[in-house]
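Support request, priority: normal
Reporter: lab tech (M.K.)
Component: structure prediction queue

Hi team, I submitted a job for Cyclic nucleotide-binding domain-containing protein from Pontixanthobacter aestiaquae yesterday, and the status page still shows it as pending. I've pasted the exact input below so you can check whether something in the sequence is tripping the parser. The sequence length should be 817 residues. Please let me know if I need to resubmit or if it's stuck on your end.
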Amino acid sequence: MSEKYRVVIVGSGPAGLSAAARAAELGMPHILIEKTDHLSDTIFKYQKGKHVMATPSNLVLRSDIDFEAGKREHILGTWDAQIEEHKVNVRLNSEVTAITGETGNFTIELKGGDTIQAEAVVMAIGTQGNPNKLRCPGSDLPLIQYQLDDPGEYFDEHITVVGSGDAGIENALGLAADPAQRNTVSILNRRAEFARAKPANVALLEEAEREGRIAVRRETNPSEVRDNELVLETRDGTETIRCDRIIARTGSQPPRGFVEGCGIEFTSEERSAFPKLTPSFETTKNGIHVIGALAGYPLIKHCMNQGYDVIEFLNGNHDLKPADEPILAEKFAALPGNRSVDEWLEIFRANIVILNELSPLQMRELMLDSDVAAFDSNDVIFVRNDPGSSMFCIAEGSVLVEVNPDDSSITVPIEQGSIFGEVGLISGRRRGSTIRAAEPTVTLELSRTAALKLIATVPSAGRAVNRITIERQLLQMFGSGLTKEDVSELVEAAEVVEIRAGQNVVEEGGDDKDIFVIQQGSMIVEKNLGGKPIFLSYLPAGSYFGEMAVIDGSPRTATVKAAIKSEVVKLPGDTFLRLMEKNPALRERALSDMASRRQVNSFVEERKESFSSAVDMYSETAKFLVDNGIGEATDVLLIDETLCVGCDNCEKACADSHEGLSRLDREAGRTYAHLHVPTSCRHCEHPHCMADCPPNAIKRGPDGEVFIDETCIGCGNCQRNCPYGVIRMDAKPPKKPSLLSWLLFGAGPGPGEASYSWRKKTADKKGLEQAKQAIKCDMCAGIDGGPACVRACPTGAAIRVAPEKFLTFTKLAEDVD
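Reply from support: The job had stalled in the queue. We restarted it manually and it finished. Here are the results:
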């Protein structure tokens, strides 16, 4: 006859240990089942010497066993000793193969044939046993491993860590910690931000990058694994690096087959979805509870609190509130209605589209890193051109967007459940419009970190944000009086596709019939003439292409390929045709756009013999400009060397406008034919420099200028990340002595603004050479008349242009005519 317990706890990670310790303390008949020969396999598998964090710091710990930040070995030793002290009933080397039965009478089957009976089951099995595998050619080669036990075992190797979460960062730091090991360590992050990692880990990684101990490769994916080589897909194309070993830390998935076999339902069909849970951690299979990482709560302190709480619930303590209840209660206190924390959590989850599939546990975690606010009718939430990279969600009420800066009465509504502010989140631009409450409104404001983590880790949230973004982009781009209902079919059918640099999206002569909208990045359009690709035009983010083949059914008349790594929204042509049929104004606009493009194509075909040399010259010049960063620029400085007289007025004017410090080097940079691209900021659409700025000191102004504000800490990340060498680090200005100090003691430069030469000299004298700040072109933001370099050029040689206005075949046609 098998043993019977009040509760069986499956898995001895932090959640399971805490649950078992609480059961032992309460005298509850229990057993803790672990499939390995040791406790807490999750922590046991951490790399040796790893420092384990105890976050969130403001959350109290509820548990009968201790936990505070410290080394892996110390934490494991403490838990082993305390589990023994509490006389927890532990069964090691026992793998659960099935759980059957009902509340009060469950049968737990073990590998080998033994069974255990229980009234309730607490599943704390985590997800670490199901790592996500690399999915690229060569992913079965032996140089790939999914676990790092001891970083000290490896010497003189080129090691690449794939994965930008906490585990990947900690592995990379461990491998690069001892210079005597002489390892060359790289870490790949497919995004620009480390959205999944703790800020403290990101800070340590950035420090290692600054010191040259780790090469951090952002917006990079593994493309192919070869013997001792790794092919990378980067923002700018393909690159091959030496690689002796790959540590893949790309996350893990719940053991879904086993969990569903126990009768438990998941929140969705997504691979990364979690089980459906009640606030007391009970699943859709009554009597089986899920806690820990399998519940979507991977932080150790959260897991341990859950272990304590679930046993209290089973012991009849139904009034117990989660440990974060006081924090959330204080956060919600200013909201109207005198509702409880649980009521507000459900309102936010149910009413806000991007949060619909989150569990109560995930909602609580999200709220800890978010702000809530209530607004009365007509209250301003934020103002046009305000800085800000957070995203807002409307839980109750609605808002109005002032679309015309000259007339605040012209507005567009955004209804309850939707989001706003996502443009600042995605692009880093200042707020594009003033937004005010249309009625009494309650908002949830997600910090940039919280929003990016939500999008990255909750597929349903990512899809919802993407859907709203596509819908708004289509309405803004096509206009013509369209409504959300008009484009709903097109939005539902839309597919977001990542395109690597140089990859063709459509090919000349092709008979595919889709339309594409450029969401991020840029495209170049080429036409084959005489066996050679001829550059026709440049398409920035926000443009669309492909409509010609859809409207008249013709083959593709040109090739469109990515100038840099890009994202496009793919729209089915037949759906677009149906939309045009219902909206004559849209059809008229599309036909007009198509006619102008056909005119360029016809012009090229008719005149190609008469100015073939000009075509070749233009195409080579355009290719040179794209290769030198014009493909991702929004505003670039070009110098026509046939007009330039070398007076350096441009540099002098730049210095005069920026405290004696020029942000322009006229002679530096590359030249093709008569066009010179000096060392000056391109103000990229998605700036490399902005991607990894710890204090978020790099921002985009209302006119698209990328600038660095006074919060710069001089870390140098932006300088290292800029591929065009347009950022430099210089002495941070020391504080200027007061006027009284100058009068009495001669301290400082006297009245007026301190010159750059004085600031630099003083910094050097005081040994402040380590106090640096980043310096770069800001397009003379705030200075009347626009960029000083252009205004000061006596011959008109210096021009600042948006690439789409310069890189077009129409420009060549005008010149030739």
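The chain has five domains: 3-129+253-323, 144-248, 326-462, 489-609, 624-816. Confidence is low (pLDDT under 50) at residues 809-817. Let us know if anything else looks off. Ticket resolved.
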